[in-house]
Write a structure and sequence with these properties.
208 residues, alpha+beta, PH-domain like, 2 domains, seven-stranded antiparallel beta sheet, 28% helix, elongated, DUF1990 domain-containing protein
């Protein structure tokens, strides 16, 4: 599974990701449309693939809240110290177990994400994961991940680069909506299609 360092973004990374989303918005506003690309899985009639990129899949889940209880006994000063130490250790373990059990976004898989006009499809290390648009109730982006509130399963976050670009592309494919990650600055003439996105090699600006 890809390490967390893969997803750490510098300020330059963030600016590049936002710029990619805004170039996409400019292109869509001027009438440009992304082209379909091959997908290594069966598509449904009328379905096309418009982007692919590495991703890490997180889901809002509870953890394992169990902990190991230890006991100690003894007499005299040493015995009291052992008992007190055991009690303090158990208390700390209970606190750690409670924190671990609290619901939060947890990594469940990683692999290759394909964005079609019907779904997010992830070829994970353990399984294929399909997140169909009709089951998505709410969506947002924090600059590093695309967050999806689902109707039938706990919320999902897709760590993908550039996240703002893929979020904007999803909103256009799913809702015919053009969104920007920054304040619009209308160009004097339509810009070229985005340098990062459909039909272009994916990946981070540093090649990772």
């Amino acid at each position: 599974m890809m390490s967390d360092w893969y997803w750490q973004q510098s300020e330059e990374d963030r600016r590049t990701a936002i710029a990619a989303a805004d170039r996409l918005a400019d292109g869509l506003s001027s009438g440009w449309q992304p082209q379909e690309m091959p997908a290594p899985f069966h598509l449904r009639p009328g379905e096309g693939c418009f982007s692919q990129e590495n991703t890490q899949v997180l889901q809002y889940l509870e953890g394992d809240g169990t902990y190991t209880h230890t006991s100690a006994s003894g007499s005299g000063a040493i015995g009291v110290a052992l008992v007190v130490g055991s009690m303090l250790g158990n208390h700390a373990r209970r606190q750690r177990a409670a924190a671990e059990a609290a619901p939060r976004l947890r990594v469940v898989d990683a692999g290759r994400m394909y964005l079609t006009n019907r779904r997010f499809s992830v070829q994970g290390q353990h399984q294929w994961i399909d997140l169909w648009f009709e089951d998505i109730r709410m969506s947002s982006c924090d600059g590093a991940s695309v967050f999806l509130t689902m109707g039938s399963i706990p919320a999902v976050a897709l760590r993908v680069w550039p996240a703002p670009y893929h979020f904007a592309l999803f909103r256009w494919l799913a809702h015919d909506e053009i969104i920007r990650s920054s304040a619009p600055t209308p160009p004097a003439q339509p810009r070229q299609p985005p340098a990062i996105g459909p039909g272009h090699p994916g990946g981070r600006p540093d090649g990772r």
